[in-house]
Amino acid sequence: MDAGATSLLRFATAGSVDDGKSTLVGRLLHDSKSVLADQLEAVEHASRNRGQEAPDLALLTDGLRAEREQGITIDVAYRYFATPRRRFILADTPGHVQYTRNMVTGASTAELAVVLVDARNGVVEQTRRHAAVAALLRVPHVVLAVNKMDLVDYQESVFAAIAEEFTTYAASLGVPEITAIPISALAGDNVVTASAHMDWYGGPTVLEHLETVPVVADPSDDPGRFPVQYVIRPQTAEHPDYRGYAGQIASGVLRVGDPVTVLPSGRTSTIEAIDALGQAVDVAWAPQSVTVRLTDDIDISRGDLIAPTASAPSASQDIEATVCHVGDRPLTVGQRVLIKHTTRTVKAIVKDIPSRLTLDDLSQHPAPGELAANDIGRIVVRTAEPLALDAYADSRRTGSFLLIDPADGTTLTAGMAGTAFAEAAADAAPADEADDDGWDF
């Protein structure tokens, strides 16, 4: 059995309005026989009610009533399907500018992004925006699906020009891998089966590429990171001294005998045992859920991070990051927030918003004062307690965080950590600066 038979690929679709994202996903589900009979019957019924003779496959993902009525995608639609070669979780994301935050949500965990382009329109502003977001989120693989080739008579020259323009732009952003595929989602060309109208194209179909793109990375290439989710102390007669730390390994590998550091305290110990599914093991890797036991009885609680000492991150109260603001209310300088990083949540204050990114030309707008919904920018945050963040470029899992409204628990901002700059932040705002409502840090 090949590696792809048991692997899981998370991918997201993105594109401008009416480029055919939902139709592509619907075609993918339909032609790979991943649609139940009652689902297809419901789509056929809804299509007839709209005066359409053929079933509108976009309705398989446009699940909200407002989406069906307007013929657009508003929310992120998640779907699971599988083929004999691989399992998939797809996120069909909106194309409208005002729903950029939804694309960030859908692509944040994706290993591949499918960016659609209408062959008649070519690369447009929103195409560049989605390429920029994919680059910011460090999505490893990007597929350019040039859709509606049937409306340009399947001309190779049209596809080649669009592919060259997009590839040049995306490569300049640092996207590591770009694959261009000419398709017609409506007719099914090169989605699941090869097109009979484009004999000039010799590459894979969309599904073939999804089934074969490499996604299984060697966890030993990444530093070990184990956020503690729960402390297990049964204190029973059978296990009077048992103390285990349960959670999911965020990255890398843990081995019995490894010297480890507990953050943010900085205390050190050695892994005495690892329990996985009730069995003792010598080694465990991401994303396994395990219980770790240490040789020393030290103070560890939920939110602490256990990491091999040789590759342990540094903990800091000062964070500089690129963020996408997803809340409806603006994010402002001086705003008090909660910051959630892995299993740890602490108080924080937004100290500065140095710039806002203009995605059209990737220029920086300095000192915007605030970030509105869908804005992407740089922020400086001071936390009440140290956090052990990696750079997002090194680890998407432990380099990301959320800002949360402490009043009602609303998610405000999704963040991607950059380098800490404790000295500059300390000069700008003394660490012992106090206020009268308990936010003293």
Structure commentary:
The protein is α+β, with helices and mostly antiparallel strands. The protein folds into three domains: 3-212, 3-Layer(aba) Sandwich (Rossmann fold); 220-311, Translation factors (Elongation Factor Tu (Ef-tu), domain 3, Beta Barrel); 316-428, Elongation Factor Tu (Ef-tu), domain 3, CATH 2.40.30.10. It contains eight helices and 25 strands. Strands 7, 8, 9, 11, 12, 13, 15 and 16 form an eight-stranded antiparallel beta sheet that branches. A six-stranded mixed beta sheet has the order 2-3-1-4-5-6, sandwiched between helices. Strand 12 and strand 13 form a beta hairpin. Helix 5 (125-136) packs across helix 6.
The CATH C-level name of the largest domain is Alpha Beta
What would you call the structural class?
A: alpha+beta
| Radius of gyration, CA atoms, in whole angstroms | 24 Å
Please, what is the oligomeric state?
Answer: single chain
Specify the helix fraction band. 10-25%
* Weakly predicted, low-confidence segments: 1-5, 64-74, 419-436
Tell me the CATH topology of the largest domain: Rossmann fold
